[in-house]
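Notebook entry, cofactor series.
This is the third protein in the set we're modelling with a bound small molecule. For this one the ligand is 2-acetamido-2-deoxy-beta-D-glucopyranose. I'm keeping the input format identical across the series so the outputs can be compared line by line later. Sequence and SMILES below, as received.
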Amino acid sequence: MALLEHFFFLAFTSQILAEHSEYLKWDGGWLMNRSTRLLEEKHCTVERRGASLTYAEFIQQYAFLRPVIIQGLTDNSEFQALCTKERLLEEYGEHLVRLSTANTYSYQKVNVRFREYVEHLLKPQDQDCLGSDTLYFFGDNNFTEWGPLFEKYSAPPFQIPGTSKAYSFGIAGSGTGVPFHWHGPGFSEVIFGRKRWFLYPPEKTPEFNPNRTTLSWLMETYPLLLDVDRPLECTIHPGEVLYFPDHWWHATLNLDTSVFISTFLG
Ligand SMILES: *[C@@H]1O[C@H](CO)[C@@H](O)[C@H](O)[C@H]1NC(C)=O
Ligand SMILES: *[C@@H]1O[C@H](CO)[C@@H](O)[C@H](O)[C@H]1NC(C)=O
Ligand SMILES: *[C@@H]1O[C@H](CO)[C@@H](O)[C@H](O)[C@H]1NC(C)=O
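Returned structure with ligand:
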């Protein structure tokens, strides 16, 4: 009898696990969300190049002209190993981090302990949530504290003459993202998770509500766009670096819990 109960218990729990593992898995302790596969673009329209892309080609073909995704440009496996949930909590759990709201023009800032953020605030965001109601960790890093970690990061080796680089590190939940905005040129990569990008050239201001999230823009505005009004778009994975030129509009959507780092060239 006990054996039979045990059998049913096992059958029951393994079924629950199977149902969930269809949608969720963990990478580096961070939650990956396979059900957001539906939110990946049908066709990536940003050029993808391999590590054989030379610096001269990068400058001539992309630096001042258009975005590009470069695969295998650097090896950040050591940095990735330092960015697992366990390692980051161990090292930075008690440090304060500065969180921002994700609306375009009026970022609000709040300081919390990193552990508090990871364990209680880092969660998936749904479509109806306002950008101004979601707090997330991107940029505003205290370089004194995070410097030892950033030293282990291999930044993309392609510099733009006359600029210097500044890092912006963050972690955000599935469904979060920054709505359209622009600034100087830079690179961005995910260390864990996937991040979908939408980009428009400087002369083409996108239609969007600055208080709404990228997710709500994707569900409500994007489907109505004419073909000529579609952004360049692509989802980047670990091992890829996306380059965006100066003044290009861009919005991002984290499909998983993403650990990411950008290198701004200012
Ligand atoms: C996974 O993605 C779906 C679809 O966007 C979302 O509704 C859900 O909240 C996400 N779950 C987690 C745990 O990230
Ligand atoms: C950055 O961290 C250092 C060391 O913990 C601290 O002394 C300093 O006040 C912090 N800076 C800011 C702007 O929070
Ligand atoms: C966005 O929110 C701000 C502050 O709540 C408000 O003043 C502004 O009118 C809103 N903008 C739009 C386009 O809804």
